[in-house]
């Protein structure tokens, strides 16, 4: 750690407006994938390891605020300012279904079993769509105290998490009863909420702090004040010993989970950072910014395991079987006739 190397990220171009949401698929037989939402109305799918563009989902008529992939990486979903949430075939890019709403859709999430889609937005209402019967009316839960900013599933789809745009706290809903069973209190609105890969923690960012909550007993585990106003935070999924945060100062801060000490700070974006997420294998993380780019950063060599080597540019290069295999499979993906002009 004596020689602090400058991190050189993979820069992914293609979006013409700010990038406002990022989501990694779990590891699939074809590798893992990264989907991005942008105010340019065109969600994009990428190889999660290399950042290579795979395709663009075309059909929204307004800013896309939220995006996600199902557990198998076979379907994508997006929520938009055009008052719709759409389901897409992630292999072909075809629109499979469009769910009409009465106002802006800010958040969407596939259930763990992939059969349900949860949405929330300005209407102050959670909707649960049955993807096996997409033409059936959704189940509506309308007790949200404010406009919904984030949603997530936990406890094997028995519980729903939501936060509001203008009210602090995270609400946990019992899916069966549709009632709020617990509220995790924060002073400011929660702009980012993530359930950890092992289901142990809920990571929240509320502007001035990043908090970690016990996802089963709902107690506050850790709370760290941030050096700037942060919009998004993510916990390293494998060891759980690091977390990242990004926000107004345009930097991506890496912290020690146990002490809250800042380990490193990555500079490169030219606008506020709206979203940060760790890849499912924990070797890299992505950031999306007001500047319209996505940057994929390797974990520093100091945190790398013995299967990694340090590349010439100081980033951790992976010596990992299967990367070429993934690349070969991805060549068969055809999503959009017209790719982005670069990257």
Automatic annotation (TrEMBL):
Cross-referenced CDD domains: WD40
InterPro entries: WD40/YVTN_repeat-like_dom_sf, WD40_PAC1, WD40_repeat_dom_sf, WD40_rpt
Xref: Gene3D superfamilies: YVTN repeat-like/Quinoprotein amine dehydrogenase
Segments annotated as WD repeats: 57-98, 266-307
Superkingdom, taxonomy of origin: Eukaryota
Keyword Nucleus found: no
GO terms, biological process: spliceosomal snRNP assembly
Family that this chain belongs to: Belongs to the WD repeat STRAP family.
Name of protein: Serine-threonine kinase receptor-associated protein
Species per Swiss-Prot/TrEMBL record: Elaeis guineensis var. tenera
Top-level taxonomy: Eukaryota, Viridiplantae, Streptophyta, Embryophyta, Tracheophyta
């Amino acid at each position: 750690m004596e020689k602090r190397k400058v991190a050189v990220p993979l820069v992914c171009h293609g979006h013409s407006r700010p990038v406002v949401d990022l989501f990694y698929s779990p590891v699939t037989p074809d590798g893992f994938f990264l989907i991005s939402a942008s105010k340019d109305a065109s969600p994009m799918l990428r190889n999660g390891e290399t950042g290579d563009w795979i395709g663009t989902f075309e059909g929204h008529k307004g800013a896309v605020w939220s995006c996600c992939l199902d557990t198998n990486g076979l379907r994508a979903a997006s929520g938009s300012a055009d008052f719709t949430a759409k389901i897409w075939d992630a292999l072909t890019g075809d629109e499979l279904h469009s769910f009409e709403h009465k106002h802006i859709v800010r958040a969407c999430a596939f259930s763990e079993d992939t059969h349900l889609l949860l949405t929330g937005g300005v209407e102050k209402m959670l909707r649960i769509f049955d993807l096996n019967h997409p033409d059936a009316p959704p189940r509506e839960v309308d007790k949200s105290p404010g406009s919904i900013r984030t949603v997530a599933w936990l406890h094997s789809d028995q519980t729903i998490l939501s936060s509001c745009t203008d009210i602090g706290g995270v609400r946990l809903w019992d899916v069966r009863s549709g009632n709020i069973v617990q509220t995790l209190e924060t002073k400011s609105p929660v702009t980012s909420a993530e359930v950890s890969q092992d289901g142990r923690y809920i990571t929240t960012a509320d502007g001035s702090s990043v908090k970690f909550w016990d996802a089963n007993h709902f107690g506050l585990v850790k709370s760290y004040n941030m050096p700037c106003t942060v919009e998004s935070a993510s916990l390293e999924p494998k060891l759980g010993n690091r977390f990242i945060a990004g926000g107004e100062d345009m930097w991506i801060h890496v912290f020690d989970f146990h002490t809250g000490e800042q380990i490193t700070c990555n500079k490169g974006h030219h606008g506020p950072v709206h979203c940060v997420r760790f890849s499912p294998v924990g070797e890299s993380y992505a950031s999306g910014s007001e500047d319209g780019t996505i940057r994929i950063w390797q974990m520093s060599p100091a945190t790398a395991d013995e299967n990694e080597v340090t590349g010439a540019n100081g980033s951790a290069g992976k010596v990992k079987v299967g990367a070429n295999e993934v690349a070969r499979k991805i060549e068969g993906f055809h999503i959009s006739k017209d790719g982005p002009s670069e990257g």
